[in-house]
Amino acid sequence: MTLISVAPQSPIVSFVDASHSVTDYVRFGLYDGAFDPPSVLLNNDGDETKNFVGSDSRRFFVRVVDMSTMSTSATKRRQTKMVWQTYEDDRKTVHDHGGADPTITLVETAAGSGIFESPWLMLVSDPWETQKVKTTTGIAGLGEVAYGSGDYRLRLASMFGHIAVEYPAGSGDRTFCQLFRRGVADERRNVPVQLFILESLYKKYPLLPDYVLGPDLESARRVYARMGMWVWSVVDPVQAKTFKKVTVGKESLLIIPVPAGVNPDNVTNDQRDLIAGPIPGLLASGASGTTGPYGKMALTDTIRAVYVGGCVDGQGVACRDMDHMARACRGMVLVADAQGKIGSDMGSSLAHEICHMLTDAAHYVDPPIVGRYHGASNLMGGGGTGVGSPQRLWDAPNANYLNQSETMRKSHYIRG
Ligand SMILES: [Zn+2]
């Protein structure tokens, strides 16, 4: 008898999306199946269909075919381990190494199949989530684990980056999967925003530009990155010749004088038009096709966010107009703060106001099935507490049939 020796084939690693199809891209989790009515508590149930990771519309898992590891028992399934981490676009720089134990357990689908699958996994954009949110392991009988423990199911990622699965764990053999569909049908978008601070406010808070271009912009980035949308600051080159430009890192804004008739600490609806132009037209709107005193704005269809001391009818925090209203301040939002935080990190105010323009809508209204999309956890909800802290955006209709993701992607303020 001749023994035929067959060299084991190298393992095959693939990524599988929520519809159980093998995929060449994944996306950030949206926490859109995450909440237990009527509270805003995350559902971290052992039942994956209810669990915030296992029920997320953008969940995925990893499948490994490895005949060299398959079970030789007729009934007993084997387990194996992979390392999962995230990388930047260069596939060399680690974005999230996963902490002390970055492994995930894969379980054989049937004894002897040689096919191993991870539990559902999820990507997040906000460090708050990996710092504060525990996950179940997805393996029956095991409890919740925190970041840095084996079988933790969240990783921070970049919308420009990749996931890397190292299999077998410790081998150095990595398989990458990109975030978002790319190539000719790249689904990622740009959200340019022109940022301004009223001069009176800047004099009072000279450090305000650092906060606006630092934490405020960063907060907006984390929120919109989940949708594959990149928020960045733009400055009109014509306006930059007229107004003081402040640059922090790669981001810039303009300090603008307070127009006559405007109370910078108590801007009324009518005064918004005075800030926006066209008369006196400091920030003449390209969105409404007007030509300002400095010529046609180069930045047509670009949201303008103006930091002011306060708004008299802006419901405390800031104010906006519906984008479809034919006002001079079309496309302009005011960012202020009634909680005394102006001059410091104002959290998600900028992200929230931008969303009013991108969706051309008011606040989020819960759909009939409240549990899955709890409005208090939405960027446009009334929340801002508990798990709602990293403000959510969803790809599903709310009670007003508004789908935030679809609506924003069609906005004229978005670039391809
Ligand atoms: Zn609002």
Model description:
The chain is 15% helix and 24% strand. The protein is α/β, with parallel strands linked by helices. The chain folds into two domains: 174 residues, no CATH class; 183 residues, Collagenase (Catalytic Domain), CATH 3.40.390. Strand 19 and strand 20 form a beta hairpin. About 6% of the residues have low confidence. Zinc ion (ZN) binds next to helix 6.
Question: How does the SSE layout of this entry go?
Answer:
Elements: E1 12-17, E2 22-23, E3 25-26, E4 60-65, E5 79-87, E6 94-96, E7 103-108, E8 115-117, E9 122-124, H1 127-132, E10 135-136, E11 144-145, E12 154-156, E13 162-166, E14 174-179, E15 189-198, H2 199-204, H3 208-225, E16 229-233, H4 237-242, E17 244-248, E18 251-256, H5 269-276, E19 291-292, E20 295-296, E21 303-307, E22 318-319, E23 332-335, H6 349-359, H7 404-409
Parallel strand pairs: 3-14, 9-12, 15-16, 15-18, 15-21, 21-23
Antiparallel strand pairs: 1-2, 1-4, 4-8, 5-6, 5-7, 5-13, 7-8, 10-11, 13-14, 17-18, 19-20, 22-23
Helix pairs in contact: 3-6
Zinc ion is lined by residues 352, 356, 363.
